[in-house]
């Protein structure tokens, strides 16, 4: 069973002690075809009314990050810069489900409802170190970056009480002992990157950049727990994968050919190390079953994704007008994608090498500041990114060649109008998101939408001038913002659990409705 569809990010807690809260709980009972609950009338219009709503969805995340920066001037021309860092991360994602994996459809306490909570504990640490040397018209540098990363991720089940026999679990607070450990993965990785580069100033207004980097990463993944009745497989993927590229070149140039005018180009080769993700968690070799892992990695069907990128651009900058035009062409090889098939209540996810992708695009931006404090910005992006060949999955060949890649719009537009006067500022922003392919064959797509937001801010400075007892307050800022001003209904995230080759898999997140935010911030 794959993580279920979320139709929003708001939480719906219920206590079985009031009529309205009992109604929410009874909807869950109805979703599991249990007596005592009835679905709303509008749900009958859906193809799967029992899978339309989920409850108690929320997330918790805590991050702890520390580091030390060091910068030594060894000589007048030579500098040594280093950083050491460490991070600890805890994450939790939860939703209540009416689909227990037990054969009788009930949890051990007789409840038809349980909380599925995905937990993640991660630690990373590493360092960067580089030497920078200036001589003549050259700015030379060389350095390394090392990081160790370890993460335990898994999903637990927590039984909810039978209606009328206790309070539901507070999934945002302290958790009880789990009813079951549904699945778990553990990953450890070591990555090493080295680079050498030189920026050569041919003329005061002309610079050329040459360099390359080397990358090596090894990831080991292991199954820590698994309930086949839930995951549908006897074993989760375990093994070791390595990404290694000794020479990844980068060449670029910059020419300020007239006052305020600039031309530039950039050519680079890159490699994407294998993503780290738990079972069905993304386009990762470890997001599969052990048998699928053996068939793809053992047969050499999956390789690290690489690309060549070619870009050229133009900029114009002065006090009234900033403008830029950027065109690019990218060739991707060994594109890894998460493919989902089967029913949405228990889909099957696989990771596949879909071959090459050819991407061509143009970005344009314009910022106008006609008077002091007033700014109008616009940006337009056109992207034509298509698969290079058809693919075969499950014995069926799918015609995806020439189709726009999934979840990626061909056209986007953004605009913002802002004005500042003394300590008061206000803004209104809008974005247009073009149509996105929802399936690889393009037989279903996500409609385009406009999204507008607005806000205002006021600074109250140096409060000591009003009252000497408030002199410790340097700045008091009042803010008010409205998100989704027109209350547009739209699909924000597509392919949450992967995309299907064709057909409607309903793996997406509905965007947030109109929301109001107010805040007060103080600086001391």
Descriptive notes:
This protein is mainly β and 524 residues long. The protein is built from three helices and 25 strands. The chain has a 17-stranded antiparallel beta sheet.
How many H/I helices? Answer: 3
SSE series: HEEEEEEHEEHEEEEEEEEEEEEEEEEE
Beta-strand content estimate: over 45%
Count the strands? 25
Biggest beta sheet summary: 17 strands, antiparallel
Rounded average pLDDT: 87
Quaternary state reads: single chain
How would you sum up the global shape? Answer: globular
Helix content: under 10%
Uncertain stretches of 5 or more adjacent residues = 1-26, 29-36
Rg: 27 Å
Topology diagram in text:
Elements: H1 19-31, E1 55-73, E2 78-97, E3 114-135, E4 138-159, E5 180-203, E6 206-226, H2 228-231, E7 239-258, E8 261-272, H3 290-297, E9 305-317, E10 321-333, E11 336-341, E12 348-353, E13 357-368, E14 374-387, E15 391-393, E16 396-398, E17 411-421, E18 424-433, E19 436-437, E20 445-446, E21 449-461, E22 475-483, E23 491-494, E24 508-510, E25 515-523
Antiparallel strand pairs: 1-2, 2-3, 3-4, 4-5, 5-6, 6-7, 7-8, 8-9, 9-10, 10-13, 11-12, 13-14, 14-17, 15-16, 17-18, 18-21, 19-20, 21-22, 22-25, 23-24
């Amino acid at each position: 069973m794959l993580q279920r569809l979320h139709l929003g990010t708001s939480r719906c807690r219920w206590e079985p002690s009031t009529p309205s809260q009992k109604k929410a709980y009874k909807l869950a009972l109805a979703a599991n075809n249990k007596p005592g609950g009835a679905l709303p009338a509008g749900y009958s219009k859906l193809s799967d009314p029992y899978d339309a709503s989920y409850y108690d969805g929320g997330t918790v995340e805590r991050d702890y990050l520390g580091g030390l920066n060091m910068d030594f001037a060894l000589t007048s021309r030579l500098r040594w810069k280093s950083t050491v860092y460490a991070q600890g991360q805890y994450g939790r994602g939860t939703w209540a489900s009416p689909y227990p994996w037990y054969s009788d459809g009930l949890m051990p306490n007789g409840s038809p409802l349980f909380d599925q909570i995905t937990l993640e504990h991660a630690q990373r640490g590493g360092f960067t170190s580089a030497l920078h040397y200036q001589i003549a018209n050259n700015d030379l540098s060389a350095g390394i970056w090392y990081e160790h990363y370890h993460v335990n991720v898994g999903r637990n089940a927590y039984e909810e009480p039978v209606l009328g026999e206790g309070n539901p679990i507070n999934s945002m607070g302290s958790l009880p002992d789990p009813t079951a450990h549904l699945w778990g993965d553990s990953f450890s990785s070591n990555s090493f990157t080295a680079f050498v580069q030189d920026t050569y100033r041919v003329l005061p207004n002309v610079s050329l950049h040459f360099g390359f980097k080397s990358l090596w990463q090894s990831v080991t993944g292991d199954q820590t727990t698994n309930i086949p009745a839930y995951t549908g497989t006897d074993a989760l993927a375990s093994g070791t994968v390595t990404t290694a590229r000794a020479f990844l070149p980068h060449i670029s140039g910059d020419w300020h050919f007239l006052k305020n005018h600039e031309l530039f180009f950039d050519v680079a080769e890159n490699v994407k190390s294998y993503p780290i993700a738990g079972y069905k968690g993304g386009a990762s070799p470890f997001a599969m079953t052990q048998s699928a892992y053996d068939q793809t990695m053992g047969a050499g069907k999956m390789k690290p994704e690489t690309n060549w990128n070619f870009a050229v651009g133009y900029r114009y900058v002065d006090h009234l007008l900033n403008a830029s035009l950027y065109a690019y062409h990218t060739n991707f090889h060994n594109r890894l994608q998460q493919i989902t098939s089967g029913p949405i209540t228990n889909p099957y996810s696989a990771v596949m090498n879909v071959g090459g992708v050819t991407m061509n695009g143009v970005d344009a931006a314009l910022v106008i500041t006609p008077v002091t404090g007033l700014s109008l910005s616009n940006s337009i992006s056109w992207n034509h990114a298509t698969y290079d060949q058809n693919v075969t999955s499950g014995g069926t060949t799918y015609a995806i060649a020439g189709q726009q890649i999934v979840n990626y719009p061909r056209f986007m537009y953004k605009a913002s109008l802002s004005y500042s006067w003394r300590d008061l500022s206000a803004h209104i922003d809008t974005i247009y998101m073009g149509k996105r392919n929802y399936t690889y064959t393009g037989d279903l797509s996500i409609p385009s939408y406009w999204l507008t937001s607005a806000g205002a801010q006021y600074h109250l400075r140096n409060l000591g001038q009003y009252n000497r007892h408030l002199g410790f307050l340097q700045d008091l800022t009042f803010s008010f913002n409205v998100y989704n001003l027109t209350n547009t209904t739209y699909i924000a995230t597509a392919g949450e659990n992967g995309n299907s080759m064709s057909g409607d898999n309903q793996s997406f997140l509905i965007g947030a409705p109109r929301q109001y935010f107010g805040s007060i911030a103080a600086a001391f």
